[in-house]
Design goal:
- The protein has a single domain (4-218), classed as Aldolase class I (TIM Barrel).
- 42% of the residues lie in helices and 17% in strands.
- It has helices at residues 18-34, 47-53, 77-82, 99-111, 123-130, 151-154, 156-169, 184-192, 202-205, 210-218; strands at 4-8, 37-42, 58-60, 87-90, 115-120, 136-139, 174-178, 197-200.
- β7 (174-178), α8 (184-192) and β8 (197-200) form a beta-alpha-beta unit.
- The longest helix is centred in the N-terminal third of the chain and has 17 residues, at 18-34.
- The mean pLDDT is 97.
- The structure holds SN-glycerol-3-phosphate (G3P).
- Residues 8, 92, 140, 145-146, 178-181, 199-203 line the site of SN-glycerol-3-phosphate.
């Protein structure tokens, strides 16, 4: 089964503005050449730009628990959807959401026909957050994010445990693995351990040739 690749450009310079459009072209070539399913998560300010340029599913990196009205600065699920997003990441290690708020935020995202990737830092969080029935649950140990020691090498057990917990609660929830993913081994091992795909940021946004890096990883 081909891995689902979720590229989260965070706020890296190569993932916003005109440079994001260059990255999108590369990701489209990877998809065309490998047949992989790629989701691209971009800053809120780039959702419309990205979704106007590509058929790759564009996701927000966060949405707030707010709706139309006096909510200055809020990122509304309604607006994210209208800007062309197909989904949103929620509770990323770099944008944590209080559990009570998260429950309502997941519901609001669903109401606006947004797919939901909920991120967990620990197995305790996995146990709690799988019950929200997200479309995807991503396990990302924060201490490994952005580094070169991947979660697949450093903590393979957390992947198998996550798969076990999630699939027991709802086999329809897809498990994603993130943090330090940089090599073909990382993807292969994640899939062997039962994951449905990976979440990646710096390995792509920091690459001189993101297309080559991703094709090498996938093939
Ligand atoms: O959302 C995925 C991200 O947190 C992983 O970051 O740089 O370790 O691939 P990175």
């Amino acid at each position: 089964m081909k891995p689902l690749i979720v590229v989260n450009v965070k706020t890296y310079q190569t993932g916003t503005g005109p440079r994001l459009l260059k990255l999108i072209k590369k990701l489209e070539e990877v998809k065309a050449e490998t047949g992989s399913k790629i989701i691209l998560s971009v800053p809120a300010t780039d959702i419309y730009r990205a979704s106007s340029e590509t058929n790759l599913p564009i996701y927000a990196q966060h949405t707030d628990l707010a709706t139309y009205g006096p909510n200055t600065g809020a990122i509304l699920p309604e607006s994210v959807r209208l800007a062309g997003a197909k989904g949103t990441i929620l509770n990323h290690a770099e944008k944590k959401i209080d559990l009570k708020i998260l429950k309502k935020t997941v519901a609001a995202a669903r109401l606006n026909k947004l797919k939901v990737i909920v991120c967990a830092d620990t197995l305790d969080e996995v146990r709690l957050l799988a019950r929200l029935r997200p479309d995807y649950l991503a396990i990302e140990p924060p201490e490994l994010i952005g580094g070169n020691h991947s979660v697949t090498k450093a903590r393979p057990k957390i992947i198998t445990e996550t798969v076990k917990i999630v699939k027991k609660i709802d086999p329809m929830i897809k498990v994603l693995v993130g943090a330090g993913i940089k090599t073909a081994y990382d993807i292969k091992k994640s899939m062997e351990l039962g994951a449905d795909g990976i979440l990646i940021a710096s390995g792509i946004t920091g690459a001189k040739d993101p297309k080559k890096v991703l094709i090498d990883m996938i093939s």
